[in-house]
Amino acid sequence: MAALKDIKRKITAVQKTRQITRAMNMVAASRFKAAQTRMENFRPYAAKFMEVLNSLALRVDSESHPLLAVREPKRIRVISMTSDRGLCGGFNNNLIKATERFIREKTREGREVELIPIGRKGRDFFRKKAKIINARPDVFGKFDMSLAVLISGDVIPPFVNEEYDELYLLYNEFVNVAVQRPTVARLFPLPAIGRKEKGEPENLLDSIYEPSAQALLEKLLPMYVHVLIYRALVDTSAGENGARMAAMDNATRNCEDLIQNLTLKYNKVRQSAITAELMDIVGGTEALAKG
Amino acid sequence: MARELTLEIVTPEKIAFTGVVEEVTIPGTEGEFGVLKGHASLLSSVDIGKLSYTKDHKKTYYAVTTGYAEVSASKVTVLVETAERSDLIDPERAKRALERAEEKIKKLPKQDMEFEKARLALMRAVIRINVAGKS
Description:
heterodimer; A: Helix Hairpins; Pyruvate Kinase, Chain: A, domain 1; 2 domains; 4-stranded mixed β-sheet; 60% helix; elongated; B: alpha+beta; ATP Synthase, domain 1; Single alpha-helices involved in coiled-coils or other helix-helix interfaces; 5-stranded mixed β-sheet
């Protein structure tokens, strides 16, 4: 029979774990809220930006820009965004698996693949499994647009200099708190923008462009890359905390179940100990009376 | 003719400012330009620089980085990656950033990619210090 003391100790231990998971859940919830606000604040910027970019792309022959150059994809690079911390369910695992699958596929097609991990978990996992360049671990604690600019600075010049031919971005798209979907998007060459979008002539038609529309587009394209990367960063940070919230909520509930079962067991053991003791006493007195 | 001019400064972090103003001065890539109500529609790229608007005869300054400005007769939309209002800039921090950038530029060769980054950082710091002095 398990000693009462052992069970009691176990209950206390689980209670302490529950306290931790509950606290982590609450921290994740507040971080999630911040990330969500950030996502909402970013939306008008992204929408406005796309609007202008599209209308500009309609007016300009955009084929010639180096970021749109299509080459035979011999060497490709993959940005893989994971979180810095664990304990967030399958969040990182799913993305790492997706990244592995993607790399395997591309390697089988005879491409040379280099990996750019953003976030510590991905970097740690792929450290010995893939060719890593420009890793950026520990970035999600506090980040803003300048991080996206930094990452773009890592990837744009080598692409323009034809050091590699294609760039893909893998990240967890934020669907809602419970669902984050690993997504693959091609960054370079940039997918054609604004082509044949309901061809309605817009009021921008006769505006003045400063500098020329062509030059303006060339200025905006790198910014477009910033927007795409920033969106992925924001999605990752919101998704990470959403996933952690769910995972920790689950863990707290499991702790409660465990505590309940253990308490039940504790009471049973205690009761049977009392019964056994009583039997002893009764047996003893009866023996004395007979004697 | 439009009766008033609305200015909107949008950054990825937040909408930094919206409101009716009398005049806006924007640091365009081709040079600084001012906008009053009824301006011809214009699309210009914006460079790291000093943006200001006048409202109730009072000037407010912002340090902005790259983006663009879309101007129509009654509305100016400025989309930039960062915008800091002058009274929110910490001049001490800006000065330190300036020193760091200068330090880097001295050490690096001109062709280096880091050099370009440091040069941009330097420009940003200069603008910040410049803007921080005004209110």
